[in-house]
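pinned: reference chain
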Amino acid sequence: MIRTKFVKAGDWRTLESFWNASGTAFFKLPQGASIKVRYGASWLGIDRQKQTLDGVNYKKLSIGTGSLAYARIQIRVPHDTDVTYEVFPGGVAASTPSIPF
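pinned: its structure tokens
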């Protein structure tokens, strides 16, 4: 499912939350934005899969069995902007999104 959300610049912003579930998301823009998966509570959490978007290649974040508690897909953008991404519940074997965006 392709989603677009308005994201304010600054600290990390949560786009998707997973509780005892798995999922996959693909990102491409905005260039210079950082994406990551955060497992656990705010200050007790741990970051994984941190990547920077280059505006050319798709970047993939996957939530696996580590979300038995709580996991979030987060983004940090250099300026206020709309972010379009594709998210799938469950495991996805694809390395690129199903529909280019």
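why pinned: Residues 62 and 73 are 9 Å apart (CA to CA). Strands lie at 2-7, 13-18, 23-27, 34-39, 46-52, 59-63, 71-76, 81-89.
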